[in-house]
Write a structure and sequence with these properties.
This protein is an alpha/beta fold and 251 residues long.
Length: 251
């Protein structure tokens, strides 16, 4: 990172850390709401340790690291919220993503050194859909907090994206659709992204359950009819990412 990019990144992560602490203090009831949502969804029991999760992997990055990609997941899950982790995409989906880039060295991306991983909200739930239950049972206060966290993340992520000049991948888009839990994130990101930065925004299915890989493979096979591929992997990824971006955000 350049000196200016490094300063912007440090300001971003410091502000994020402070904001997350504010949200924790403002809503101590989040933990029992998260437990209740998991219980209602019949989620296997697990320890609830962090209600709003800061990604400590951000603190591992140095000025010497070349950031090539910002990846936006949904929200911290069971593994991410454990106190020993407090890192994003460290569960099965993260392992799949890490393995994908390792198996495709032509992309020249180390998932743990060249990627900034953020979420649409740092508020934890075992499964993303449980955020709806948390918002409903928590009343207006918690529903507003979940929305506020999305708007804050989208605004500041748009600014960071422009400052670093990287690609931005939104992985997991079902809840970005109209009336989805992340519709506020979608609207804010689109409104705050500069036109030149918007061209570097790509939308994909999530890494979990290999959906990203399967979707990309299906796209390539459909495009080529099973014939030998002439386009590079990178160009196919970009084409698919633009296709999904148009589906979610419009032309």
């Amino acid at each position: 990172m350049t000196e200016q990019q490094w300063k912007y990144f440090c300001d971003f992560k410091d502000d994020l850390r402070k904001k997350i602490e504010e949200w924790k203090i403002a809503a101590p009831e989040l933990t029992w709401l998260q437990k209740e949502a998991a219980l209602l969804a019949k989620t296997p029991e697990y320890p609830f340790e962090t209600s709003v999760v800061y990604n400590r992997a951000l603190d591992d990055l140095t000025p010497q690291d070349e950031i090539k990609l910002i990846v936006i997941g949904d929200n911290p899950g069971k593994d991410e919220q454990l106190a020993k982790n407090n890192r994003y995409l460290v569960g099965q989906a993260g392992k799949i993503a890490e393995g994908y880039f390792r198996r495709n060295p032509e992309l020249k991306i180390d998932f743990r050194r060249n990627v900034i991983i953020l979420n649409k909200t740092p508020i934890h739930s075992a499964k993303t859909a449980q955020l709806k239950t948390i918002a409903k049972k928590g009343g207006a206060k918690i529903a507003d907090l979940i929305e506020e966290s999305q708007v804050w993340m989208a605004k500041r992520t748009a600014e960071l994206h422009s400052a670093l000049g990287t690609e931005l991948w939104l992985v997991g888009y079902s809840e970005l659709k109209e009336k989805g839990i992340f519709s506020s994130y979608r609207e804010t990101l689109k409104a705050d992204c500069l036109p030149e930065a918007w061209n570097k925004v790509f939308v994909f299915q999530h890494f979990s359950m290999n959906r990203f890989t399967i979707d990309l493979s299906d796209y390539i096979n459909q495009k080529t009819g099973g014939a030998q591929k002439n386009a590079t992997l990178e160009s196919n990824i970009h084409e698919l990412g633009v296709l999904h971006r148009k589906e979610i955000f419009g032309a």
